[in-house]
Queue: 3 jobs
Job 1
Amino acid sequence: MSNPLLQQLNDLEQEFETKLNDLSSDTDKLTQAELLNFKSYYLGKKGALSEILKGLKSVSPEQRKEIGPRANELKDKFLNRLDRELKGLEINEINQKLASKKIDTSLLERDLALDQFAGAYHPRNLIQREIEDVFLSMGFEILDGPHIEDEFHNFEALNIPADHPARDMQDTFWFDKSGNDSEQSGHLLRTHTSTIQVRGMLSRKPPFRFIAPGIVFRCERTDASHEMVFTQLEGMMVGEDISVGNLIYFMKTILKEIFKKDVEVRLRPGFFPFVEPGFELDIKCLICNGKGCSVCKQTGWVELLPCGMVHPNVLKAGNIDPEKYNGFAFGLGLDRLVMMKYGIEDIRHLQSGDLRFNTQFKAY
Ligand code: PHE
């Protein structure tokens, strides 16, 4: 015997599908309110599905058993379909709002190919890491120090007393005493990382060896090879019987590691109050191959590594007995090294913050 209610349910399913398709194909008619009406027409308390189920009383118990599951199945199906339509509607509305706000998403694509910029390191960081690795492997510690320093750490402890003409070698940014422009506070932006020599000596006992990378500040005129803010990497080794030979060995090792080839170097006497004897280690300019350019000031050589044996007065200021211990120190110019390594012809690129510059240097 055929089941009349089952037939009605099948018809209802058909009708639901056809009407919903009609509704959703007409975007003017399809609104949230319309969909809710639609829902209550089929699934509401007095809706079409409930009406059919009222007929359950007049069918046989066997037929009733068929109807229950089928009715639930239809209910779930209708709810799912309506839910999908509602979500689609929401997305449409958002899109419409976006369109009316005129957000120009092409701007991003045109000016910032973001994936291209993801995770690029500044070339200075790349080289700094590489140097740190080499020194760590040679037993050096890595130290840090403050950018704002006092006269003791920046000058006095480094054998540069007040009023000594050597202070003029480093044009300095002083902090004024608050409220009084003409009186200095005794604090300054550190002019070199040698301040960390002092901090390192005072906080450890010999023998020790450490490096200290960081930015330094000088009131300089800027040009292709000078910036007011630049980076140095200080190094210091103190122990017994350390010689100039040890110093040269470490300097050559590090340059070889960085450039992955032998570079031509020359050592000449250099004056720094905190070393005796003091040297300037220059490398042959890799921008012009020694011919002369703006980076090497037409000399063919670039000052890269001022260094020397630590002056006894400096050891004393660091609470170290100069009769028993000696050592060497150096102050590598990190920016110049970066320029030589990558063939960058102007130091000002490094501070420019220009993404077109920075993103050229992937890890190497
Ligand atoms: N601090 C010196 C400078 O900035 C460089 C230097 C460091 C020289 C260590 C000798 C030893 O000019």
Job 2
Amino acid sequence: MHPETSVKLMKVVNSIRELNQILAVIRENGGQIGFVPTMGALHEGHLSLVRESVRENDVNVVSIFVNPTQFNDKNDLVSYPRTLEADCRLLEAEGCDIVFAPSEEEMYPEPDTRVFNLGRVAEVMEGAFRPGHFNGVAQVVSKLFDIVQPDAAYFGEKDFQQIAVIREMVRQLGYTLRIVACPILREPDGLAMSSRNVRLTPSQRQNAPVIARTLKESTTFVPGKSVEEVKAHVIETINREPEMKVEYFEIVDGNTLESIRDWSETQFPVGCITVFCGPVRLIDNIKY
Ligand code: AMP
């Protein structure tokens, strides 16, 4: 690698202009740029994406931006944890080169009125329960891709549907970057790591692992039990736990995200779930 393709100390950049200047030099020198978009409040799940990006690229950029346009619930936006300083310390320790932490004005000097048509993958599940969410995700991720122009971008499979939506956006807009899907990181008790977990009360936190536990258990019922029976079992088991309410649980074809009725309909069945644990909305998924 050319020496000028490496950035020695981690830089925290707030302006698009400054980021452009830094990345232009890296690109001119043939440096491969890896990119991890996040909303901050970083945990091991995020850091696993960063590690993969650091491993595969010459320069790694992590964005930290709580994107208002993807929040359909104002309370969720207001209560979303913001921990920029601690995030930067974690990222520096992982060998991250550049943190891009823009203000809302920097990202949206004027309202983003673009409407994406991302087809069925954006309409089902999260698309149905969080109107406008994926349009906001497409707005911010396309802006970030335009700013960073990465060679590869890293996303977590915890947001399984989000990856399908991003792939569709990339296809439609003709981006040439590589989308890398990284496995879900979990707490020792199985709970999928999430920035929202810190909002759980101690008793909610104690009950929340029922989600992952039940999903895992449900894989042992396949193909003996029908799709309908597995769905009913998962929903009933989780709903029995205090303060837990399943919003939806769908078993889908992992490529099209269409619900299946019979295991024979796909080689790649995935169970996607959203559960309210008190007021906190948790998501998870499992491959069968
Ligand atoms: P967020 O900050 O929640 O927007 O997440 C930023 C990225 O980290 C997304 O690609 C998420 O899918 C990913 N991510 C969040 N939690 C996890 C996890 N537990 N395991 C793996 N990736 C995760």
Job 3
Amino acid sequence: MRIVRGIQVSNGIAIGRAFVLEDAARRVSARWIQPGEVETELERLDNALERSRADLNAVYAEAQREMGDEAAKIFLFHLGMLSDPSLVDPMRALVQSERVSAETAVDRTFRELEERFASMPDTAFQTKVNDIEDLADRVLATLGGQRLESLTGVEEDTIIIARDLTPTQTAGFDRNRVIGMATDLGGRTSHTAIVARALGMPAVVGCRELLDAVPHGAAVIIDGDRGSVIIQPDEDTLDRYKGYIEQQETYRLGLRELADMPSVTTDEVEVTLQGNIEFPGEIGPMLELGGSGVGLYRTEFLFLTGATVPTEQDHFEAYTACLDALGPDRALVIRTVDLGADKYTQAQAEFPERNPFLGNRSIRYCLRSLPMFKTQLRAILRASALGNVRIMFPLVSTLAELRHARMILRDVMEDLDEQGVGYDHDLKVGMMVEVPSAAVMARSFAKEVDFFSIGTNDLVQYTLAVDRTNERVANLYQPANPAVLRMIREVVRAGRNGKISVSCCGEAAGDPEYALLLIGLGVRTLSVTGSSVPALKRLVRSVSIKQCERVARKAMSFDSEVEVSAYLRSRARKLVPEAFDGRAVEDRA
Ligand code: PEP
Ligand code: MG
């Protein structure tokens, strides 16, 4: 038995057999044709493109059904490319003028495009290289008379092991047979991770050594709760995990009953549980699990999935789709685009950045791309006339920045006033607190916003100087580090002083142990991935505020992360053992 740790991206446990996808390096030898063969070759090329489009349409339709419109848009980019004359015409020209085979023409054209995209300074283009390779493979496979969905014939209970996976591959999995996956590359924000979460498939990425460690056909457990892959587990481990899956099922059924119950502590204090979403389609399932609104809509995914920069109408439609799902009263906190760093930057970025996490990202980027920013603000304001919309700025690090953003918002409001377009004049404006400078200055910020939302994902990385996407320093990435906790405490106090609400929307908030501490520190709204809502509700309904405060006081007395974590673990499991029934226990394997 061997355990490989990776990055947890999609919860759940899967036990199955490994299907190891070797790297399919594209090897196409150049082949020349006779003048008389040109017509036949062009026909082969056209047919292959046509069939690839048809296949992609099917993948798109399937993805729409399984993951919703927004997530499926990834494949519209693929379809758009295959219909784009600037890609297709050069292929035909190569066959005609250089008399090369259809395969050679396809291979050359895609390679040139890949190189062009890879050398562009902007990560928006660089990250599309994968998609282009994916497309090239698809067309070449079709030319060779194969279909790319080589995974359709896999056995039941298959676990895909790969160096990396493209979104097409991931969405093309036969969901009745493929039950989990793990890759050597990738981080939480990679396409594959997004698709896996949207499919609800247990997944671990960033494992680094899997491909060498897993024999094809080996028994494998994916522990998506802990981010580990157990290769050839021994009987004991296998039994424990089997028991655990059963437990999880029962637990899940039990949790359904909780969905409609109020999220209040035993002493009747409400702790609001909201969902973090990337796509409007995630709202329905989140509400079913008992969430009461959207605390964080990561609108940058509108840029990630579309082939072009979203228009005002694209924004507006996405927001109204959210409001349709939420109804008129439930909150929708729309965060303005948080592009850059690990997420796509805009095509307009002029200079490559040496240090993009500290670079022109998020609100900084928006403030320098005013037409794009104003387009989004207009759409948010228009949507605010239709429901309980709030607006939130990401990565604010100085007061000047916040004031600048608010000034732009006022400009856009004035434009709408002049044009007689309606919006909510009392729209609540908040900010993420995810940079240490904002946490330290929270009292000043509290005078100028209506709410704070603590983003632990970034706050941890910037406080501890640990790249949140780098698997090599993952052990130093510690949400329970006392330095981080002191920041959070300060922000909550500042919020209380300034009489504004403070929520937490980082991943850590979805962990019941950590949530116990946050509630004890005074946080009354937690915004988390939908699947984390039920366990949190169970926690909330089982504890009193007094108990949480006692836990927080004690936790704040430690000066090392190890002590804090150990204490939280033991207290949480004593106070609310049932909140942990459905989770993989850390030392399971
Ligand atoms: C955060 O930083 O905690 C956060 C919620 O935002 P994101 O993960 O989108 O950076
Ligand atoms: Mg963030």
